[in-house]
Amino acid sequence: MEVLLALAIFVALVVFVSGPLRHRPREVEEMDAGLADLEARKQAKYAEIRDARLDHAAGKLSDEDFERQDAELRGEAVAILKQLDGVDKPAESGG
Amino acid sequence: MIALGTLCLILALATALFAAGAALYATRRTTGPSALPDRRWVDSSRRAVYAVAALLSGCVLLLEAAFVRSDFGFQLVADHSSTTTPAFYRLTAMWSSQAGSLLLWAWVLSLASSAVLFATRNRHREVVPYATAVLMGLGGFFVSLMLFASSPFVALHPAPAEGLGLNPLLRHPSMMIHPPMLYSGYVMWSIPFAFCIGALAARRLDASWIRSTRRFALIAWTLLSIGILLGARWSYTELGWGGYWGWDPVENASLMPWLAGTAFLHSIMVQERRGMLRVWNVSLIVATFSLALLGTFLVRSGVLQSIHAFGASTVGAPILALIAVVLVGSTLLIVSRLDELRSERRIDSLASRESIFLVNNLLLIGLCAVIFWGTFFPLISEALTGTRASLAAPWFDRYIAPLAIGLVLFAGIGPLLAWRRFSVAAARRIFLWPALAGAAVAAGCLTLADVRAKPLALLLFSFAGFTLAALAQEFARAARARRALDGGTLPRALLAVTARNRRRYGGYVVHAGIAVLMIGVAASSTFQTNRDIELAPGQSARVGSYDVHYVKPTVDIANEKIAFGALLEVRRGSKQFVLSPTRNYYRSQDPSQGPIGRFFQGESTSEVGLRAGIRNDFWTAVRPNIDGLNRAIRDGDRRFARASPDLQGLAIAAVAQSYLTNSPPATFRVIVNPLVSWLWIGALIALTGALIGIWPAAEARRRLTSSYAAKLGRELSRA
Q1: Whole-prediction pTM
Q2: What is the pLDDT of residues B575-605, one digit of tens each?
């Protein structure tokens, strides 16, 4: 009984693990690593801009500091958006 | 079933090695224009990790079934359980053994690896294969230890009729959860570590590996915190010495990765926001994971004397070798990537949140370094002088107290500051109320003579007051600002602001919990009243403001233990309560010690009498004087050596009952612990904050849902 059970486990294991090697790779929505990183950086930058707005409203940042910081952050966000556009364009033209 | 268990372990090892090999092979077989690792081999290696998790789950089920059935054909079951062990403890006896805890390590690792690889199945294809190889290298290592050094599947022929039972010290509810929490905490640090190594190997040195494993790091921190907390609670209520922390090597071993991990959780925020501290972050996660391995090594090697380490073993050397490989390999990898890891940015201002994070990191690592030195001093002194010398609690207190006080202060300063820079005008506005609160606490404490005489405690209470006020102000200001932007009521705005940024405000709740916890630690360790008193039945004594009256002795005889105790009436002013501390004597498994004597030759444990309160805990443990029973025990052993079990039971009862009729004075350790309940309350607050931080943000959940909605839309349009 134990031998049969062990054999069944072994066969199931081999079939399960070797599955992807026996078939063509599945079609998946896989985000390009560079694009994924830029997207994550964009979200992080947006969070920074929102935090700075909240810090200003909470009195932690003076008007002058906030304006300077907000301009810096927005500049950085625009740079990321431009990079994102650059990554997106070839995909659009190709697809 | 034993053979099946061993076979599952062999298959788990082979599958783990395949997973690591296939993952590395995938990095050699790049495909597509971006030269990504071969998807088929990556998928196969991920499936192999799932299979390892399934196989090890099978091993755990087999062992648990054996414990439930009291199948003493398993040596592990015979050595750590018995038919009289309550089912509650039989289920958890697995991890009281070395082989069982190795299985727990490997099993949790396989489950956590499966979870993270499932979460990243469509992302980070450059990093994931290397991370898989690291995780399965570790998994293979621990499964190898079970197969070649300490197997949980060893058969006993013939199976004994009865097992040795569980170590009495481990029969405590905390012990059901403490080891798996602690081990899970240790193991979960392997996830950010593996992804860090993957990122270094693949030269993907941005913050993406941090974003993907941040939640796992927070879960590791939370589990480790729960483990440490339950261990402290167990010490307080079970070990009978009255403390919750004794700077024991195994306790320290769990605190070191907690401190390094706390530093890591803070400094990764700086990298995510500002792209700075990259070298520091990769070094911190390597240190945290190495310290987690060191914790496993200290519990299992027996190299240092500890109240928590259950026996020396043969797996110490291989674990030490693994730590060496992790440290050397990681260091070489970091050094080889130093140019790419260098940050392009500098800290703008010392008055910024990122600079406070750096100070906080230095304090945490300072604490870790002090504890490391104190823990390993016996080995260092032996190596240098030939004599093993230990450093006691006062040494630790001298260095730990100032650093911990600084940490409490910066737990309040950090949240007050904005990122990047902070103006003097804003500083005046923001710091005013917290500083006044801290000063008010200091002034209040100065009216108390006891606190006046203890400047460090005074400082800590004041800083904790400052920090709690700062955090309350943060919540209030954020809620008001949110209300100004969105409208609504203040409580609704408070909830909204927390929900929108769970990580930030969950973190603030953790800071508040730690400040409260430190109040409990400082008060209970500085102002504790601790006395050993000897009382005969009917006598009374005064301890602090409590009158303690020893009413009568008690005896309770169970199948595997005799409990000698005392009934105490305790009075404080008009309030009165009753406590029943006992000392349990567990029957040894050696029948040559006699039918009665074997009860007094085995393990003994304390069941403390505890009256917990918001202001004070009244804690007592009894050490009964049973010398007067020695003659009756000797006589009984001689007369009833060959008697029937029933007759032996009557003899044991007679000897035990004689303690009631002729009871000598007993020694009581009585401790009045001020504010110690706040330690546990603070810990619960901190854990609540951690859970808030772990819970996915509404925005992330929305993104997830919308990505599924988009996918559904695409697939429907195809159909």
Answers
A1: 0.88
A2: 999 999 999 998 887 778 888 888 888 788 8
Which candidate in B25, B27, B50, B206 is best for mutational testing of the A interface (most A CBs within 10 A)?
Answer: B206
Secondary structure element (H or E) that encloses residue B225, with its range: helix B208-238
Tell if the CB–CB gap between B15 and A17 is shorter than 8 Å. Answer: yes
Q: Please count the residues of chain B.
A: 719
Chain B residue numbers with beta carbons less than 8 Å from the beta carbon of A55 are 418-419
Query: Cβ of B34 and A33 within 8 Å?
Result: yes
Q: How far apart are CA B615 and CA B546, in angstroms?
A: 13
What does B91-114 look like in DSSP terms, one character per residue? TTGGGGSHHHHHHHHHHHHHHHHH
B223 Cβ neighbours under 8 A, 6+ residues apart = B181, B182, B184, B185, B188
User: Contact at 8 Å (CB) between B518 and B460?
Assistant: yes
- Which pLDDT score is estimated for A35? 74
What count of other Cβ atoms lies within 10 Å of the Cβ of residue B347?
Answer: 17
Which of A2, A16, A17 best tests the B interface by mutation, with the highest count of B CBs <10 A? A17
Regions of chain B short of the pLDDT cut 50: 712, 716, 719
Tokens 């604490």 correspond to: B367
Chain A nearest-CA residue for B53: A13
Subunit contact A57:B51, Cβ cutoff 8 A: no
Cα of B116 vs its chain's centroid, Å: 22
